[in-house]
Design goal:
By secondary structure, this protein is α/β, with parallel strands linked by helices. The protein has one domain: Alpha-Beta Complex (Maf protein), CATH 3.90.950.10. Helix content is 31%, strand content 23%. It contains 6 helices and 6 strands, in the order E-H-E-H-H-E-H-E-E-E-H-H. The chain has helices at residues 17-26, 37-40, 52-67, 101-112, 176-182, 184-196; strands at residues 8-12, 32-36, 71-80, 119-129, 135-146, 162-164. The chain has a 6-stranded mixed beta sheet with strand order 2-1-3-4-5-6. A hairpin with a 5-residue loop joins strand 4 and strand 5. Helix 5 (176-182) packs across helix 6.
């Protein structure tokens, strides 16, 4: 039986404003007072996990213990078939210290070369942790293709060059509501909400 989040403050264990905003929108209908780890001045732990789930759990537990509040962390990234699943858990690192995702997208594109396989997936692991060390973890995936050049100024990160399977707009071209309906984060959130928020 999953542990339920009841109400009150919920720390979003991220310093990424785009991610915090997106999670806040997804949690809008619940009795959660969302506050970011950045706002609370919490340190970002080193992401030493070998999987998205391990890194999400590490971040959620660190924030829950530091703030003495329930904390939700996301670890997500882009896995490209032609690159053997890279950048994967290193997706943010490929953007460098300045988080230059235009450069990161070009790096992915350059490494792909002229491969005919443009398949990729976004993966999102969500971990909800409590100060006593209890954690609930859920994973979501959305399949698609890499397109070049990138299209659209919405979303964040690698969104402008990810075309979800069956779609005509990249995540960077979609309105937030359309992206939230099908994204990897939405998939993981649906599982989280069903288990811990209803």
């Amino acid at each position: 039986m999953s542990r339920k989040f009841t109400a009150g403050p919920l720390v979003i264990a991220s310093h990424n404003a785009g991610k915090v905003r997106e999670i806040g929108e997804l949690l809008g209908r619940f009795d959660a007072q969302v506050v970011s780890a950045g706002t609370l001045g919490l340190d970002e732990p080193e992401e030493t996990g070998a999987t998205f789930a391990a890194n999400a759990e590490l971040k959620a537990l660190a924030a829950a213990k530091a703030a003495n509040l329930p904390a939700l962390a996301d670890d997500s990234g882009l896995a490209v078939n032609a690159l053997g699943g890279d950048p994967g858990i290193y997706s943010a690192r490929w953007a460098g210290p300045t988080k230059d995702f235009a450069a990161a997208m070009k790096l992915v594109h350059d490494k792909m070369g002229d491969t005919p396989d443009h398949g990729a997936r976004f993966v999102c692991a969500l971990a909800l942790a409590w100060p006593d060390g209890h954690v609930e973890t859920f994973e979501g995936v959305v399949e698609g293709d890499i397109v070049w050049p990138p299209r659209g100024a919405n979303g964040f990160g690698y969104d402008p060059f990810f075309l979800p399977t069956g779609g005509s707009l990249t995540f960077g071209e979609m309105e937030a509501a359309a992206k939230h309906a099908i994204s990897h984060r939405a998939d993981a959130f649906a599982k989280l909400v069903a288990a811990c928020f209803q």
